Each structure stands twice: as C-alpha cells, then as structure tokens.
Amino acid sequence: MQQDAHEFLNYLLNTIADILQEERKQEKQNGRLPNGSIDNENNNSTPDSTWVHEIFQGTLTNETRCLTCETVSSKDEDFLDLSVDVEQNTSITHCLRGFSNTETLCSEYKYYCEECRSKQEAHKRMKVKKLPMILALHLKRFKYMDQLHRYTKLSYRVVFPLELRLFNTSGDATNPDRMYDLVAVVVHCGSGPNRGHYIAIVKSHDFWLLFDDDIVEVSC
C-alpha cells in the first residue's frame, strides 16, 4: 500500500517531538549537581512537552457507562490528529458526529465493570476533552474490503466548512467554543491506495495556493 500523507504527518510530528525531548534530556543531564546527582525536577521520567504538543496535541476522553450499575469510567488519551470514517454524500460535521456516536459493548465485547466485578453490557463514547490549537483531521478514505481482500479508496464527496466548531466535547473541556478556520487541505489524486500522488491547497492571506510537486499556482 502506498505510504500516505497521514502516515508521513504522524512520522514527522513524532520524530520532531522525539528529537526535541532527547535534546532537552541531554541538557538536563549536562546540568548535574556538584555531587553528581540530578535534582528531583530534572529526574522526572515523564517526557517534556514540546512546541509540537503545544500546537497539535489534544486530549480525548473515553467514557464507558455500565448498563447494570450506571457507573461511568473515563480514560484520557492524547492525540495529534483525529481520524474519522467517511460515508457517501456526507460532511465533516457528520463524520465527527459518527466519531462520537455511542457504541454498545455486548456479547463477546462486554465491558469488565470494576463495581460489578464482572463483564457487563455498557455504552462507550469518545469525546474531546482538550481542543488542540491546530486541529488536524484525517478522512479514512482507504478501507479494507473483506469481499475484495484488499484496500480500496472511498471517493465519496465530503463537504467541509471554512469554519468549524467541535460539538462532541466533554463537560469539562477546555475552550469548548474554539472556532477553527480552514487553512490547508491535502488531497490524494488517484483511483486507489496503490497509485496516485498528493497535492496540497493552502490558504495564504486572501488566496488559496495549489502545491503540486514543484508547481505552485493560485487556485480558483
């Protein structure tokens, strides 16, 4: 399968963050105290936050409600981008709504409830707890089709607004009313996941620029 732009974005951001964290770690090690020990603050095993995290990182909260005792448990998970499923004739808003739809855990997928001390049916839902400064959305257009035994591209039309406000936020979300302005789109050109190439459309002041390999032109 062709290496896609989403994989590259994740690789780039994570690699930059790793390099910055390693540099900061080396700086701390070089700042040892006279007796050869390191102060408690510098001995923190938690990786330092970098500008990559400050700009792109948000937090999801995974809420699970036991349908027997009604106990709600939550688990936070950091993200650098949100990957959402696409459907035919849909919109970004609809995709995000599907991302946060309530899922019922039943049969062999029952949830182990700590209060009940047994597996129970439950409702599971993902919500955004911390909104990132810059929101990167990934539309999952490459899907594995069981009947074809291969990946295929979903060339569905997806409507996206120039302004976007997330509604699928948790009750304790920070900046829940943050408005996002569309500034760039990466588009895969090709009929399938194993061929084609990518172009980028980027907003610069009041113009949209089309980047196609080494060709840059104003987009209509």
From TrEMBL:
Any one of the GO CC terms: nucleus
Gene Ontology molecular-function annotations: cysteine-type deubiquitinase activity; metal ion binding
Disordered, as annotated region: 25-49
Gene Ontology BP annotations: protein deubiquitination; proteolysis
Catalytic activity, as annotated: Thiol-dependent hydrolysis of ester, thioester, amide, peptide and isopeptide bonds formed by the C-terminal Gly of ubiquitin (a 76-residue protein attached to proteins as an intracellular targeting signal)
Annotated signal peptide: none
Compositional bias per record (Polar residues), positions renumbered to this chain: 37-49
Matching Pfam families: UCH
UniProt entry keywords in alphabetical sequence: Hydrolase, Metal-binding, Protease, Thiol protease, Ubl conjugation pathway, Zinc
InterPro entries, A to Z: Papain-like_cys_pep_sf, Peptidase_C19, Peptidase_C19_UCH, USP, USP_CS
Assigned EC number: 3.4.19.12
USP domain location: 1-220
Family the entry assigns: Belongs to the peptidase C19 family. USP12/USP46 subfamily.
Protein name as it appears in the record: ubiquitinyl hydrolase 1
Species of provenance: Alligator sinensis (Chinese alligator)
